[in-house]
Specification:
Elements lengths: L2 H13 L5 H12 L4 H13 L2 E4 L19 E4 L4 H8 L1 H4 L3 H12 L4 E5 L6 E4 L5 E4 L4 E5 L7 E12 L8 E5 L2 E5 L3 E6 L5 E8 L1 E6 L8 E4 L2 E6 L5 E5 L6 H4 L3 E8 H12 L3 E3 L7 E7 L4 H12 L2 E5 L2 E5 L1
Parallel strand pairs: 7-8, 17-20
Antiparallel strand pairs: 1-2, 3-6, 4-5, 5-7, 6-7, 7-10, 8-9, 9-12, 10-11, 11-14, 12-13, 14-15, 16-18, 19-20
Helix pairs in contact: 1-2, 3-4
Amino acid sequence: MNEKEELKLLYHLYLTNQCSPAEMERFFQLIKDNEHDEEMTSLMSVTWDQTEAKPETGLIPPFFSQDTIQVRPMLTRRISYGFRHFAAAAAILLVLGGTYLYRNRISQVFNPVHQTEVFSKTAERKQLLLADGTKVWLSPESKLSYPDRFNGSKRIVSLDGEAFFEVTHDADHPFIIQSGLVNTTVLGTSFNVSAYKNQPDINVTLVTGKVAVTLKNTNHEQPVMITANQRITVSRSTEKITKTDFPDAADFLNRRLGLFDYKGSIFSDVVTDLELQYHLQITLAPDLAQSRFYGQLDMTLPVEQCLDKLSMVMEVNWKKERGRYVIVR
């Protein structure tokens, strides 16, 4: 059986709701091929010609009285043997607008794109695989919205919180992360985006490849480009974009797993990381804020274990008072 005969068979099986999952997948694949547009148009034309005209009913909402509004029934073509036939026949109208529009619209009718939202709870990390092969490591207290498949010229996802991305390369379909007022555009690379709503800045840190960052809903003249081991920081209050070198960008390969390496980081920055990862409040004694910490914290463990390690290395003490943690000498 050649492909045209196969398409015709699968078309009729689909209309009569007799397709198996494998046959349905094959049918959609044939629809997407450029070679079968003429055959598909012919099949739907025949279906359209088999419709009969019947007056449409049930168009007046029940809360309108017949005395208030008078509606003349409209003649519409209705397929006598089921909604699937009607959907296929109606799709022929899309062909009139051009073969390209037809392929995209008919795919949306038969197999619409669905949005998925994934949330991570406090101290929870999730690893996701998107339809294009892109891998995402979602940090705690974060949300990622993405489609079950990418249609069109762009691959668009939305992030609230923090995530590490390994984007599958596709030069014809840029990958765009929308995070607040910032859009990050890549073709294929690995990088980290931190865009927690309660933080004053949005950070994009690049491990490999190249990305472009632009401000959403502004007339910012040119996107800001960064390459490996660089970071872009965007101030939420001023919308100012700052680009800096970030030689330790590779540390995010561990951070995506919850392992935080510190090489002389100031103590206040370490505390900020703990607050974000565990969604809690920590008060640090003022005289400790500029102290520097060297070591690794495993933030997949209970926060008390991280605080115990900090206490031992930094020679400090911690306690819990009225729902918040306090670190003192």
